Structure formats: C-alpha cells, structure tokens
Amino acid sequence: MAVLSEEEIRDGLGRLTDWEWDSEAATIRRSVRLVGFLEAVALVNEVAQAAEQAGHHPDIDVRYDTVLLVLSTHDEGGVTEKDMALAARVDELVEGTARLKE
Ligand SMILES: C[C@H](O)[C@H](O)[C@H]1CNC2=NC(N)=NC(=O)C2=N1
C-alpha cells in the first residue's frame, strides 16, 4: 500500500477527529484524555481489538488518564490508507465512550 502524499494526508485528517500529522516522524497521532487510568486502559483494549481485526497496530502510550495513539505503516515508512482507516475506527471508538475527560 503506497505512502500518501502530504496533500492526501491533510485531506484525510480533515475527515478525522483531532488527529495531527507529524511530518518529521511520518506518522499521524491522536491524544485522548479519559476520566482515569482504568478508563484509559479500557480504551486501549478496544483499540487493540480493532487493531487485531485490521491486522494493523498503533504505537500506544498510556500516561495515567491519557492515551497517545501513533499510526504509520512501518513496512512502507509512512502514512497509508491503512492508517487512515484505523484512525477512523479509533474515532468511532472514542466517540462511543462515555468516559472521556471533558
Ligand atoms: C505481516 C503483518 O501484516 C505486518 O507486519 C503488519 C502488522 N501490523 C502493522 N502495523 C503497523 N502500524 N504498521 C505495519 O507496517 C504493520 N505491519
């Protein structure tokens, strides 16, 4: 799967929620704050299920109530449609949680 151009990435981010492009790292990232640590871990579990289904896996960093998700396609060295698709799925999962920190 081909690496997306800067324009394609910006376009794709416009259809996602709160994802940022890190051009230096060639990744996209979203940080989500929940009401506490267990809620953060629960979200990680939901993302893990979706990732296994997709056969595509984000880098995940949990710091107390905050989950940082970073996506790239390692095999391609950049952002591809696989990352955009998993990011959209993550957005659905985040949307569905009542445990977000407002
Ligand atoms: C064989 C298997 O599909 C690959 O190793 C997958 C697994 N999950 C992956 N996840 C991510 N984020 N990037 C990859 O390149 C990748 N490769």
Automatic annotation (TrEMBL):
Q: What InterPro entries does this protein's entry cite?
A: PCD_sf, Pterin_deHydtase
Q: Which UniProt keywords apply?
A: Lyase
Does Lyase show up as a keyword for this record? yes
Pfam families, sorted = Pterin_4a
The alphabetized list of GO BP terms reads: tetrahydrobiopterin biosynthetic process
What is the originating organism of this protein? Nocardiopsis eucommiae
What protein name is recorded for this chain? Putative pterin-4-alpha-carbinolamine dehydratase
**Enzyme Commission numbers on file:** 4.2.1.96
Q: Which family does it belong to?
A: Belongs to the pterin-4-alpha-carbinolamine dehydratase family.
Q: Per its UniProt record, what HAMAP family does this chain match?
A: Pterin_4_alpha
Instruction: Please name the NCBIfam families in this protein's record.
Output: PRK00823.1-2 (NF002017)
Q: Does the keyword Lyase apply?
A: yes
Catalysis performed (reactions): (4aS,6R)-4a-hydroxy-L-erythro-5,6,7,8-tetrahydrobiopterin = (6R)-L-erythro-6,7-dihydrobiopterin + H2O
From the Swiss-Prot or TrEMBL record, what is one GO molecular function term? 4-alpha-hydroxytetrahydrobiopterin dehydratase activity
**Span of the secretion signal?**
none
Provide the top EC class: lyase
